[in-house]
Specification:
GrpB/CoaE, alpha+beta, 5-stranded mixed beta sheet, globular, GrpB family protein, NT_sf
């Protein structure tokens, strides 16, 4: 499967949640170590984010990685080398993003990792880590989130953008301290 085909498949992939898998943290660590080995001194920090980073939470089985860089121009400079290192991306999609860049890794016909490049210490950097940390610390919030995600996965099974937007509203409310 070539890059274009993998991106098209990813865009149209159905939303499906899986029970928490205890191997997810190790899969993150393996990829983090691979990235640090391939690109020494390029990342200021690499964090495991998303639902696979929250013990017990069901998730799409895709490891979300937040990689901190010193500038968006550094992120842009890394896109081609990361693509040579088994990632794929859409330059058109990345051109539409403000303050971040996105790549994915895939194997055996499915996505395995999302790599989010952001300026280390930026507001969005902190927002993503704050939400992960809230879910890890608050079992009730994590359970509410999982219940909502299951409903959205059914409602938006073939519309990943709508699924992501629904999660965004929940995340904003949770970070504001809402119900």
């Amino acid at each position: 499967m070539d890059e274009t085909e993998s991106l098209n498949r990813a865009i149209h992939e159905e939303v499906a949640l899986f029970a928490y898998d205890t191997t997810w943290p190790a899969l993150f660590e393996k990829e983090r170590d691979r990235l640090l080995g391939l690109f020494p001194d390029k990342f200021l920090a690499i964090e495991h984010i998303g639902s696979t980073a929250v013990p017990g939470l069901s998730a799409k089985p895709i490891i979300d990685i937040l990689a901190g860089v010193d500038s968006i121009s550094r992120a842009d400079d890394l896109l081609e080398p990361l693509c040579r290192a088994k990632y794929a991306t859409s330059m058109e999609y990345n051109a539409s993003l403000v303050g971040r860049r996105w790549l994915m890794r895939w194997a055996e016909g499915r996505r395995t990792h999302h790599l989010h490049l952001m300026v280390y210490g930026s507001e969005e950097w902190h927002r993503r880590l704050d939400f992960r940390n809230k879910l890890r610390a608050d079992t009730e919030l994590s359970q509410r989130y999982e219940k909502k995600k299951r409903l959205w996965a059914v409602e938006f099974s073939s519309d990943r953008e709508a699924y992501t937007a629904a999660k965004g509203d929940f995340i904003c409310e949770a970070l504001r301290g809402g119900p």
